[in-house]
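WARN no homologs supplied; continuing
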Amino acid sequence: MREARFDERGSVIRWTEAVGEGPAVVFVHGLGAASTVYHAHIGARRELAGRQVLFVDLPGHGISDRPADFGYTLEDHADALAAALDAARVREGVIAGHSMGGAVAVVLAHRRPDLVGRLVVTEGNLDPFPPPTAGSSGIASYTEEEFVRGGGFARVLERVGPTWAATMRLADPLALHRSAVHLVRGTDPVMREMLLRARVPRVFLQGERSGDLPGADALRAAGVEVVTVPDAGHNIMFDHPEVFARAVAGRPLA
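OK structure emitted
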């Protein structure tokens, strides 16, 4: 386990790392998740054999610190991730972000392009104010007080299912709520615009069971490789690890 400071009070972001050669592969989890749980089995696959691999937990999640006075905006998360990559001496890495982690990866590429050599975004949030679900929009529907101290966190854990709940219950409720609120609000410019403008190779993975990706044609026109993964849902790394690993490794997906 390694760590790096990400604020003036000495709070640290932590990650586990496998040493190796070539451009580093950096896995970034989604809202209420943890990188090793969602990605360790991918890092161990033959497609990534011999590569430097980092499994980063964002602030308020997993093994990272959870300061109560932190904003937990997407920009805050991206800056904390940048602190980890600076400490690990990563440059032009492969940043593989899932869901909220995909949005954070896009913001990172916008703010610190020196750190990003390729983006692999898996069902990442690109637009503000998504349709109501049990995820970010459901969490953000509570006030901070209701969610943290009024039973909202417990009610969400009951609704999200056992896999997500297993890691969500490890997240700090305050960090989880603030992250969800800012994920729903989005960024300026919005994440989709940042992805369209990015000057690095970009892959967007969409699970077939999640439905069509809005604006896919515009993304393709901007050079984004948009791939619909058959018989997969939101967690493509679980449903089709071989496809996910090839995408991260930069191998052909067709």
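The beta strands are 2-5, 12-18, 21-28, 51-57, 93-98, 116-122, 202-207, 225-229.
OK
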